[in-house]
Amino acid sequence: MQVTEINAEGLKRDFKVVVPAGHLETKMQAKLAEIARTVAMPGFRPGKVPMAIVRKKYGPAVMGEILEGAVNEGTGKALTDNALRPAMQPKVEITTYAEGGDLEFSVAVEVLPEITIMDLSTLALSRDKATAPDSEVDETLARIAERNESSEPVKRAAKDGDVAVIDFVGKKDGVAFPGGTGEGYSLKLGSNTFIPGFEAQLVGKKAGAEVLVEVTFPAEYGNDDLAGKPATFDVTIKEVRAPKPAEIDDELAKTVGLESLDALKTAIRDEIGRSLDGISRMRLKRTLLDALAAAHDFPIPPTMFEQEFEHIWKQVEEDKAAGRQDPSDAGKSDDELKAEYKALSERRVRLGLLLAEIGRVNNITVTQDDLNRGIMAEARNYPGQEHMVLQYYQKNQEALENLRAPLYEEKVIDFIIEMAKVTDTEISVEDLRKDPDEAPAADAAPAKPKKKAAAKKKTAE
């Protein structure tokens, strides 16, 4: 087998591979002899079928396997002998082959660039942090109390926020319609649970009142017989109940599964803290990636860049057609947008290659425990369906690999943060939650173009 490099331009390498006919024939005879030892055909004892007949029957299929093996072997030899690390699957094209002749094919491959990683310990980063304020804990407690509120009967007229216990009969053209009747229904006024205009007509009425409610069903109502049509409801108010928020005490804590109010406050503060820590990490990661992008410049494989851009541009066009265009793109021509998104694509590919190289040289891997934690984290996003999520990842190898990539990236980011000099800066919760594109810190590294619409599913931003 002869492998000849015929082109070396940038990150592209092209090879010509020639596999002699004699080499192919030797493999062919060996495989046919193996088949002949066990094949059984009418009129012949097992293992006694003449080779000419075996070759005629099995030769084409066997040669197909041999050619495939020769292509794989030649491609591997081209990469191994030249110590190449392919960035993409090599492209192979058979240029010459006829039965009994040599096999000749070309191999085109784009290789990974040589990357010189900066001294990560020289990175100086600022991490914005914020502490959950007492006011936010109190607001969360108030919302929990509101969700657990009860009500008590009152003798006054109903007002927004009260619960009216009603019997009702809905009629269209004076005739009751199916599904329009209810008894003892507790309707919170102002909740917009019923047809628009229904609840407002009960405000100011007392228990015992009989009210003729006149409404028009919305044009988009699910029942075609009622959509856009006027209707009346004979309503009897049986009781008016005023909301009674739950007391913020140990009993409230017990309704959510905690033993005391102090424990509930701690749980709320911890949850807010985790959310703030997530924002803090996101901002730190962005600053880190900006610093890495500024410190590294190396060529990127053209096909990786083209595929990344095509993926982004396709999403941009889909978002534009659906009316979801990024506001920062408004008024720009396609040429202007393509230039911006090509810059973003180049940044992403370069950062992706850089992070992968940092992980490779530092032996960073995603373990089974890492995957298990990632799967559990995904499962927690679907309360009540955790078992289905676990089964999905157990049965779907592609989904598991899609989960592995962001986990790997986060481990590499963690490694870099450990190496870097990170200074924590305490800021307000409001400032932490601001979009850094709208309110950049004075000492922040230059941010990349903001392209959320096309970037929402990608990593290595």
Count the domains. 3
CATH class of the largest domain: Mainly Alpha
**Overall helicity:** 40-55%
* H and E string: EEHHEEEHEEEEEHHHHHHHEHH
Mean pLDDT equals: 90
CATH topology of the largest domain: Trigger factor, domain 2
Which quaternary structure do these chains form? single chain
CATH superfamily of the largest domain: Trigger factor, C-terminal domain
Just name the CATH architecture of the largest domain.
Answer: Orthogonal Bundle
Low-confidence stretches: 439-459
Please compute the radius of gyration using only Cα atoms. 35 Å
Number of helices: 12
Roughly what fraction of the amino acids lie in strands?
Answer: 15-25%
What is the global morphology?
elongated
Number of extended strands: 11
Tell me the distance between the termini: 44 Å
What structural class do the secondary elements suggest?
Answer: alpha+beta
Largest sheet: 5 strands, antiparallel
What does this protein look like?
- The chain is α+β, with helices and mostly antiparallel strands.
- The chain has three domains: 2-110, Alpha-Beta Plaits (2-Layer Sandwich), CATH 3.30.70.1050; 150-244, Roll (Chitinase A, domain 3); 259-455, Trigger factor, domain 2 (Orthogonal Bundle).
- Helices cover 44% and strands 20% of the residues.
- It has helices at 21-36, 51-81, 134-147, 250-255, 261-295, 302-321, 334-361, 368-379, 386-395, 397-419, 429-433, 452-455, and strands at residues 2-9, 12-19, 91-96, 103-110, 124-129, 150-153, 163-172, 175-188, 210-216, 230-244, 421-426.
- Strands 6, 7, 8, 9 and 10 form a five-stranded antiparallel β-sheet that branches.
- Strand 7 and strand 8 form a beta hairpin.
- The relative contact order is 0.11.
- Keywords: Cell cycle, Cell division, Chaperone, Cytoplasm, Isomerase, Rotamase.
- This is Trigger factor.
